[in-house]
Every structure is written in C-alpha cells, then in structure tokens.
C-alpha cells in the first residue's frame, strides 16, 4: 500500500534534479575532506603509507554490489582463528594509546575487541584517525581473528580479538552523545551504591530512545517481547484459534464514554477502541469458534503509574466452549504455561542479559497453573490481617500482598483468581449459576500484578438486556452489541492481556516504560 | 490488563442480586415453556413418548461439567460409520415433510445432513418441533453416523448422514433473518444470470456482518487472511527479523498533515499514524538490524474506491543492508514467494472454497520474482499505445494495463517495478547514484495493483536535510526525524504492505471490503 507522502512535495524541475545530484556529491566530498585532513597531518612527516587503509567512506548509495562478505560479530570465536574477515559494526569505544589503538566493536548484543598497532602497514596517522572517530559511528573493518591468551571479560566474544588492518567510517555519529551507552547499561545495584558512576534516568532514556535502545539490555528486552507475541500466537494456533483484526476506530464509545480518546472522522466524531472485546465476541457469533488478535488498544486514563500506558498492545482471545467456562481458563492457563516454558527454554540468553542489569528471581509457574477461588483469596488476605468485605474488589496493594502470600504457600509467580464477586464486574459477565453473589469471571496474575481479566460473557440477548438494565445502562446505547446475539450465539468466554505488562513482570522489571518501545502516557507523546 | 468497564455501573444491592438470579431462571423457564408448547400439541393426541428427546435447553451458564464429548462435523465420515455421536452445530436448514424431517447442520465451513423419521422413539411432535426451530439457531444433537448410498452433493460431508435421536436448542435465533446465508453464498456467475435467485449487496452484507461472515466463503477468506499474516511473520523470522510494535498515536502529523486523523489527547491534539515508517527507521537506527510490524494504519482520505480503506492492517518491514538496496528487494521478493507458496500448498481447501463463489485464475508467480525497471515498464506501455512522459508516475489504469502486459509476456501475477522517477517519490527516498532522474525505490504489484511501496531511505542527516529543503519542507517540522540519523545509521530500506489488498488480489476478489472483517471507509464506521 502506498507510503504516505509528505505534504509540500512538488515535482522538482530538471534543474533541481541536477542540484540533487550535487548534494549527494557534496556529502561524498565532505567525507573525502575528513579523510584528507587526517592524511594531511601525516603529510608533514612524509607520505602516509597507510592512507588507503582508512578514512570516511562515501555514503552507501547502492553504487555497486561488491563480493565482499561481512561477517557477524557473534560468529567470531576460536573456530575462525587466523581468518581475515570484514565486519560492519558500531564503534562502541575507541582508545588511542601511543602506538596502539584499542576499539570495541558492537553489533546488537554482541561485542568484540579490535586492536591496531603501528607497523609497516599501519601508520601513526591511521592510529590517530581511528582514535578520533566518534563513538557510535558505524565502521567497516578488516582484521585477522586472533585467539587471546586471557579471556576478554568486557566483550561477549571473549576468546578472540581482531587485529585490524583496514578501518573505514560508514556512518558518522555526532561526537557529543546525550547519553552514554555504558551509563545506560550500568547494573541496577551499582547505580544505587551512591558511587560516582553516572546513571541515566527514565525520561532521559526515553527522550533519546534511539541511543537507549542500543544497550544490550534493551536489545534483549525487545527480543523477549517479540518472543512473547510469537509464543502467544503459536500456543493459540496449536489450539485451533484463528487470528483476526478488529477496527481501532469505532463509532460509539460503547463502554460508556469514560477514558476514551475522541477522533475527528470526516464530518463526525469517532473513538479509539479501549479493547477489541465487542469485535472478538462478534467473531464468535459469526462462527469463528476460537479467535485471537494482537493490536493496539487505547485508554485515555490520566494514570501516571509504573504500570499504566495510554496505548498498549493487547493480546486478546475469545472462544466458544461446550459446557463450562473452565474450558476457557484451562486453555488460557495452558497458553500462559506454553509462553513461560517457551521463554525459559528458547530465550535463556536474552533473559540472562536483562538480569545482568536488572536482577530478578527466575519466574516460577506450576503445571497446570494454580486456580484459586476469590473467597479463598479473601481468606488468605484476612488471615494476614487485611480488613475487607467478602465482595469487595481487590485493591492494588492487596493484589500484591496476595501475590506474595500465594508465592509463599504455593511457590508460583502465576495464578488464576476465579469467581470474582458479580458486583465488581461489567454487566456482560455471566453470573455464577450456583451463587448469585459471584460470577463466572477471573483475573490472572504475574508476580502479584494483574495481567489478564476475563469471563464467561452472557450470550443470551434477553438476559444481557436484563443485566444491562440492572446496571442502569441505557439499552439504546448498546443495541448493536445486544443484537449481535440475536441470531444464535454459542456460550463463550475469553480475556485480554497487556503485552507490555507480561514482559515487564516476567523479567521482573519495575516500569512498563521499559517494555514499550515508544511509550505513550498522559505526559509523553514523543518520540 | 483490566477490561474497560461500562459507565453507569454501580454495585447492585443484595435485593438486586436476588433479582438477577430470577432473571436467569426466567430465561430457563421461557425455554421450558416453548418445549412444553410442542409437547402440549402432542398431548391432545396422548402422552408424547419422545418428550425427553428434544426441546430448548436451559442457557449454558456453566452449571456442570458433563462427560459428553461433542464431535466436529468435519470428522464425520465413513470411518466413524454406525457410531453414536453428539454434535453442536448451527441449524443451516430444516425441512419437515410428513413423518420426516431433514436438517443440514453447519459448523464453520463444514456441513452434514441429519434426518429424523417418526418411529417408536421419535414422535410426530418431535418432528414438528424440529421442523419449527429457526434457522441459524445453535443445537445439540445426538445421532448415529450412517453411510449413504449416494453422495450428498449439498454438504461437505458427502458420504454420511446423521440419523438423529435427540435434538436440543442451545441458543435460538430470531426467525426473520436480515439476510439468508444461501443468498449470501450464491456463486457470482449465478447472481449475474438475471435469474430470480436473490443476491445480497455489499452494504447489506456489512450491515449484517455477523451473518455474512458465517458463509463458507467468508470463513475461508478470513482463514486465508490469518495465513497471510502467519506466513509473513514466518518468512521474516526465518530471515532474522525481529517483531516490534510502534505507536499509533503520534505527536505531529509528520507527513505534513494531509489525510491525517486528529485525536484529542488530554489537553492537546495528536494524530493517528499513517504508517509506522518513522518508527521502523528508528528501530534500525537503534540497532535492531531487521524489523517488522503488523498493525493498524490510518488514512483520512476521502476515497470511495474498491481498494481504499481508512483503517487497514499494515505489514511493514525495514532492514539494514550492506552495499546495495537490491539486498532488500531480494528479501521482500523471497518473502512474497514464501507467502504465495505457503498459501498454495498449505491452504488449498480455503482457496478452492472462495473460488467456488468468486471464480478466479490461480495466482501465478516466478521464482525468483520478476524485477522490471521503470523505463522498461514505460516502454511496454508506450509500445501498447499509451502516451506518457518518461518520468510520469503510473496512473491506476496504466498500472493495471502494465499488469496485463507483464502477465502476457512473463506469465506472472507478481512483479517488482524498480527505479521509480525520483520526482514522484517522497523526500527521504535515496536518489539513484548513476542517474539523478531516478531513485532507489520500487513498488510491487499483484494482478496489476500496487500492494507494496518501498525504497532505500536516506540515512545521512545532512543529505536528508538537503532533500527535504529541496522539496520545500520546513526542516523544523521534521527535526526529530532527521535527528534520528545523527548518531550513526546503517544504510537501510524497506516497505509497507496493505494486508487486505494482498488477500483481495491473491484471491482475485473485486472489493477490499471483502477482506476487512469490519471495514472502515469515509461512509462506514459500523459495525
């Protein structure tokens, strides 16, 4: 589909086209000039015999398709000792020291040491140039892989270093960075020790997200996040779910108008969907049987907490069941265990990398998952000294306390709290047939924080109308929702999961802004 | 994450809770009454000996967890002949005929015939009841699988029928449907023959989308759509891409403000993203190397055509490359071939099902895909009598014509048109280093319609600024975009794909509203 064009673009004249060509040449010339300057310094002491071995390359504009193969930093180890390789990487650090220059080259999570020594092919001018390249620039280097006698602790590739022979800058960074990658990577413990080591606060990180995301920790966090989505979909496809896509722009603030963002839609107003629930249920009424959807959901809540976002990724599912909504909780519980197992078994490197900066206990879970009933939860809280009514909802502190009590008693960081009081759930929640005070609804928790809310939904339009009236809802405003069930609908249930919360809590992080690549909250709309 | 609560919900009183219990009982009683009425009719002729074998069941409210296993319609064949099975399905049709009743039971794409005959266990009253149940109701039936002497052409399960013994209504449909499933399923040819056979127009379908989606064709279309997403992700993960999520709410109408929806965001205004491009590029600048994202994109274009939507699902990707942007076109081309092959080999049933209603030629593609350069395309058009300038963009009719010419010459429904004139592309497009009139950009086409637009992007901030100025863009408005490249950025390129278009064109459908579950266009915001 066509990429949106920027406004103000007109068709440039032929003259302008020539000008454009000149602009490209200008950039290339600038690069040449810089290489020249380095060479000039040398020139006073005589011709630089290394001058073809370094410099700033012209901009990669797809001039040619050279045969040269670039290898990955992650593949550099003793298996390829003595081979000459080309690597494109970021200049993580560069330190000139007399006739030597040490560099660390970084490629995503991986780092390798490089070294240059003045000799018959490497000139002093080349060392000087290399030492002066700004950190975070992208460079192409040629070097020989050499096994080192002692492990290089500061790099991921600990057994080898690169003896560099050529060094070209592909894309230059400005020399003054708004944050240092080392500072943004400093382990949490060290930050707190009150040492002189500088730290980077959350806002500075987010203001300069492009740099912040380059830390090994962030490279790992967002790979874990991708894994959560992948495992969610794998687990559900395995269970015969079909992926669907639901509209984000909706005509009516169906959930009553609170906490909804308004959109100007041609000559009328529309709203941003707070959840895909209505559409998931329509897909069930339309015979898709089991559906899931991964997509943006929006909450116009003025909540500035560690766990609220105004836009987040919803992992939503809905399914028809045969006789009892525990068929749904079993599926969701099994799915979560598939995710937890998949993360543990397939992404241990990424998890360890995050733990290095943000230490956390390994995530524990039971198979099958623990399902507690609400009254049992209340009893545990009361036994621990909490005063609350039997049908009160759980406050956030009580949720956290219950999480600790459950962990102590059952040794699990994940559990299902089933049978919430009817009074604290939405009108479409199916009441418990055996006890009218309770409902066929559940929340699920990770490390004591809620990550899923769900229920059996009422699929009978008459009963649904009764329940809506009971809640004082004007039936006219939810007519199309109720009408969705007038053409036969199977009993069904489901739930909605906050993706960023799952990643945050699985990894034991303290702020949801760490697991949203470009977070949106009441105070942040950029970058 | 908590499901949004409807407004107006208060905690009901204990009295109210009792009332709620009564409401549930009322629904159950109503069902009983209906069963009773049928029995009563019989009663005048004596006790109904079949009265326990049919009726309207009470609402499934998760009272119990019976052992009874429901089997899938798709599994009913001669392998299970003579077995007694329970099935839950929709009543597709029901036709009483004296002492017999024929029904067709439907489960998603699958149908099976059921038959009831009056005998020592099945009463006349039971036949009457069964014949009177509204179509589209959901029923639980018990029956014996019986091999039939002649294939049942009207059902997907052609070798067997069910000799029904029990028949219970689980969820009733209203008797008057706003559209008939048969009418909505009628093959396109028959529709056009001007016969009396009623048809369902697109708007009626969409107004009653829940019913419309129940057709076998729609069940298949949206399974193909799910497959496209799955194959897209599989193809890219295989090529080391990482999935990311980009914000839909953005602070500035970065593309200039045209065709952008405005959102009220707390005390300020924000906009809905027209594409994730800026964020994909930031992810590349942040070292993710290869990224993709699947998500909603928004275009406030007042275009009422067969191929425009105001909200669609973007399949977007972006990757760093080494030397030449053809590394990118190779990856994208290979990915499309993986999708086409995957659909053909893994989803032949679904494709055939759609073709039954909407006939189309099988989708043809070459491996590797055909890559034409823009001037070659222009030459083909000129040779065919089209008058156009060498650097004019392609009009929609010319795109379609070129698609037919390419099909005739190369026998492919997919091709890449490379090297667009620089003048018709956005400012961030990398100019061709060898010919300033052209650019390192490309569109890709399926059956003559554009489904992807992409390019090598300019990764040098100075050159990007020059190009923006050249296009008359105020640099202040795109400062943060340009600044994204100041800390070193690899050469990169990518593209954006319209998911609904891919599905529409692969299947040879005529309207994008057929491949969007709940489409949004300038005139449609519901359901």
UniProtKB/TrEMBL annotation, chains A, B:
It is an enzyme of class 6 (ligase). GO terms for cellular component: aminoacyl-tRNA synthetase multienzyme complex; cytosol. It catalyses: tRNA(Asp) + L-aspartate + ATP = L-aspartyl-tRNA(Asp) + AMP + diphosphate. Residues 222-527 form the Aminoacyl-transfer RNA synthetases class-II family profile domain. One of its GO terms (molecular function) is RNA binding. CDD domains: AspRS_cyto_N, AsxRS_core. Transmembrane segments: none annotated. Its EC number is 6.1.1.12. InterPro entries: Aa-tRNA-synt_II (IPR004364), aa-tRNA-synth_II (IPR006195), aa-tRNA-synth_II/BPL/LPL (IPR045864), Asp-tRNA_synthase_2 (IPR004523), Asp/Asn-tRNA-synth_IIb (IPR002312), NA-bd_OB-fold (IPR012340). Pfam families: tRNA-synt_2. It is found in: Cytoplasm. Residues 20-33 have a biased composition (Basic and acidic residues). GO terms for biological process: aspartyl-tRNA aminoacylation. Belongs to the class-II aminoacyl-tRNA synthetase family. Type 2 subfamily. Homodimer. Part of a multisubunit complex that groups tRNA ligases for Arg (RARS1), Asp (DARS1), Gln (QARS1), Ile (IARS1), Leu (LARS1), Lys (KARS1), Met (MARS1) the bifunctional ligase for Glu and Pro (EPRS1) and the auxiliary subunits AIMP1/p43, AIMP2/p38 and EEF1E1/p18. NCBIfam families: aspS_nondisc, PRK05159.1. PANTHER family: ASPARTATE--TRNA LIGASE, CYTOPLASMIC (PTHR43450:SF1), ASPARTYL-TRNA SYNTHETASE (PTHR43450). Catalyzes the specific attachment of an amino acid to its cognate tRNA in a 2 step reaction: the amino acid (AA) is first activated by ATP to form AA-AMP and then transferred to the acceptor end of the tRNA. This is Aspartate--tRNA ligase, cytoplasmic. It comes from Patiria miniata (Bat star). The lineage of its organism: Eukaryota, Metazoa, Echinodermata, Eleutherozoa, Asterozoa.
């Amino acid at each position: 589909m066509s990429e949106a064009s920027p406004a103000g673009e007109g068709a440039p004249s032929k003259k302008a086209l020539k000008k454009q060509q000149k602009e490209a040449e200008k950039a290339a010339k600038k690069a040449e000039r810089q290489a020249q300057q380095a060479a000039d310094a040398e020139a006073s002491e005589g011709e630089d015999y290394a001058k073809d071995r370094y410099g700033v390359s012209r901009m990669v504009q797809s001039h040619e398709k050279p045969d040269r193969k670039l290898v990955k930093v992650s593949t550099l180890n003793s298996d390829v000792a003595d081979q000459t390789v080309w690597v494109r990487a970021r200049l993580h650090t560069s330190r000139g020291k007399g006739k030597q220059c040490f560099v660390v080259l970084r490629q995503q999570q991986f780092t390798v040491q490089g070294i240059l020594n003045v000799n018959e092919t490497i000139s002093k001018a080349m060392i000087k140039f290399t030492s002066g390249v700004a950190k975070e620039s992208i460079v192409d280097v040629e070097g020989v892989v050499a096994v080192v006698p002692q492990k290089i602790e500061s790099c991921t590739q600990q057994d080898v270093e690169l003896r560099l022979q050529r060094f070209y800058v592909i894309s230059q960074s400005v020399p003054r960075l708004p944050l240092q990658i080392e500072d943004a990577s400093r382990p949490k413990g060290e930050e707190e020790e009150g040492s002189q080591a500088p730290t980077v606060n959350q806002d500075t990180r987010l203001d300069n997200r492009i740099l912040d995301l380059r830390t090994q920790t962030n490279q790992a966090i967002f790979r874990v996040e991708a894994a959560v989505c992948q495992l969610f979909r794998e687990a559900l496809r395995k269970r015969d779910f079909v992926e669907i896509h639901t509209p984000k722009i909706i005509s009516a603030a169906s959930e009553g108008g609170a906490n909804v963002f308004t959109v100007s839609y041609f000559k009328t107003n529309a709203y941003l969907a707070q959840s895909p629930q209505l559409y998931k249920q329509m897909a069930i009424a339309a015979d898709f049987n089991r559906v899931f959807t991964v997509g943006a959901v929006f909450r116009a809540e003025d909540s500035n907490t560690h766990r609220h976002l105004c836009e987040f990724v919803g992992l939503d599912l809905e399914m028809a069941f045969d006789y009892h909504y525990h068929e749904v909780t079993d599926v969701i519980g099994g799915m979560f265990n598939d995710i937890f197992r998949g993360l543990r078994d397939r992404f241990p490197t990424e998890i360890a990398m995050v733990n290095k900066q943000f230490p956390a206990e390994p995530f524990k879970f039971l198979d099958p998952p623990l399902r507690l009933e609400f009254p049992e939860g209340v009893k545990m809280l009361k036994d621990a000294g909490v005063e609350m009514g039997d049908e009160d909802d759980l406050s956030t502190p009580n949720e956290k306390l219950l999480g600790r009590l459950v962990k102590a008693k059952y040794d699990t960081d994940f559990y299902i709290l089933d049978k919430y009081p009817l009074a604290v759930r939405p009108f479409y929640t199916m009441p418990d047939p055996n006890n009218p005070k309770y409902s066929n609804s559940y929340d699920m928790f990770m490390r004591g924080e809620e990550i899923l809310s769900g229920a059996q939904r009422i699929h009978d339009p008459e009963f649904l109308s009764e329940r809506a009236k009971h809640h004082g809802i004007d039936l006219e405003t939810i007519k199309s929702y109720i009408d969705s069930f007038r053409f036969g609908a199977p009993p069904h249930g489901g739930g909605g999961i906050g993706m960023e919360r799952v990643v945050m809590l699985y990894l034991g992080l303290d702020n949801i802004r760490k697991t949203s690549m470009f977070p949106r909250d009441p105070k942040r709309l950029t970058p």
